[in-house]
# Entry
Amino acid sequence: MIALVVFAASVLIAAYVLIGYPLLLGVWARYRARPVAKASIQPRVTFVIAVFNGERYLAEKLRSVLALDYPRERMQILVVSDGSTDETENIARDFASQGVELLVQPRGGKPAALNAAVPHATGEILILTDVRQELAPDSVARLVESFADPRTGTVSGELLIRKGGSQEESDIGLYWRIESWIRDRLASLDSMFGATGPFYAIRRELYVPIPGDTLLDDMYLPLSAFRRGYRLVVDTRARAYDYPTSRATEFQRKVRTLAGNYQILTVFPWLLGAGNRMWFHFVSYKAGRLLLPWCLIGAGASSFFLPDPLRAAALAAQGLFYALAAVDGMLPASFPLKKLSSPARTFVTMMIAALRGLSVFFVPARSLWKVTSASSDKSRTAANSIGR
# Structure
């Protein structure tokens, strides 16, 4: 009976997190959405681009910012070099005549770079954006429209991943599309639980210093505003474009992200209590994602103690799924089974990353930061992009 209870609970929780809650959220958002009061406004904005060794992308990033359909006199552009040792600082200086300001900081991590830059900001809206992603010309004009609503604290842009050249890059793109869909629905109800890290905006007055070991500034800052009663919304018209990443790179990023979620819970324990006005959604989505790998372990371990024929069926189903994930790396890209094996491998990889995220409690948080490498085939255009 114990095995049966553990197995049933594990399967039901996993099914709810992966399928049940997204379906419920879709219906909920359809009938209970709270529109944001948008208007065409042009507040003064300050771009903060924190960079460590970004010579590969910085010039293109700055050109995309300078080409925005937004009044140049209403824009301040700050590049913060976080101890870069390549040509990052020289590239930023090349744009000084176009109004780009360079701040040079000793290597201290992204939170330290942001904290150093914000006191120099003159804009009422801070636009925090990473070096790799190019911005669509109308992205900032769209992004700031939501700040016409006084309830809005942060606004995320829509990150679109250029179409990958491999099945695994396509699988990562699908994963991001699902995540984007969930975040959009949460924002339509009230708020998402963070922001789209590579491209989001926050009111200058809501910025708070970020602790140096924080892994997710894009959760720490927005959730600080959320607790003060502000909404964290997204505008899918405000687009930024990124290059696809491999499963290995996404694994590293996911380890940091899940570790950051554990870290956020220790800093903001109110998220699990009555202080969170979206408690149900947080538990179903964020906390549920942290539970998923444990549900898989629970289902697998308890399967050995189930009565037959349930035991045989449960073990066979799980064995087939994990076998698909295991053989994926040995299959040629054109093999038909790849359509099933690659998503299975991606899912298992993400679950392992969630378990690895627990390492934040045993190692220095900054050791979990890894430089993200992406496919940067410049011939891929925004028209070939797929959802985040």
Remarks:
- Residues 45-245 form a domain with the Spore Coat Polysaccharide Biosynthesis Protein SpsA; Chain A fold (CATH 3.90.550.10).
- Residues 377-388 have pLDDT under 50 and may be disordered.
- The chain has two domains: 1-32+247-370, 45-245.
